[in-house]
Write a structure and sequence with these properties.
- A five-stranded antiparallel sheet has the order 3-2-1-5-6, with helices on one face. A four-stranded antiparallel sheet has the order 4-7-8-9, covered by helices on one side.
- It contains two helices and nine strands, in the order H-H-E-E-E-E-E-E-E-E-E.
- It is of the alpha+beta class.
Amino acid sequence: MLAYMRKRAAPESAVTRATASGSSGRATAMAARGFTLVEMMMAVVIIGVIAALAAPNITGLYRRMSLAALSRQLNSAFVTTQGLATAKGQKHCILLSKVDQRWSIREDSNDDSVCDPTDKLLHVYPPEGGSMPGDIGLGPASGSTPAFPAPYSSIAHNSWCSLVAGSANTASVVFDIDGRIIDTNDAPQNGSVMVTDSKSGAIKAVVFVGATGNIRTFDMQE
């Protein structure tokens, strides 16, 4: 009886192995076949749809990052110039040009509390041959509609650069040897310099208090 059962089981085992072998062969064949043209086209369409949906968000993120980076560069220019003035015991200044979309750090060589192209040049941003990101730079000409938060709310914000020595296109920020921001009469002055993304209208402002030399950057929401 036991021998008979063994004989009966043998064919079933062979069938099972044959079936498994056949299934494995079909799977291998399907894997070797790869993707059909239709499947590839569907994948391309799906990727295209995802890219189209994500593109505006990516572009907006890039512009916000570029504006933030520019405001950090401007803030850094203020801090650097202030540090040079106190470290060297000599007035230093930042000369800003809205037309050229550029600023430079200079030593007030003749100690007249006026920053002009004749003063000794130390640093230029953007570097020669470079430029600020498109649509992002010094501005806007009309400044910011919202006021700065307290305790800076009394500082003028209706121009791209609210300084006594400022104009429609150029302005200078002078630091004395104590790190204060001063006007042409060596009196402390408060003010702000703004950078903007002209396409989105976003504005960031570097605000300073002359008497204390305090420098802050604010995100101005229109």
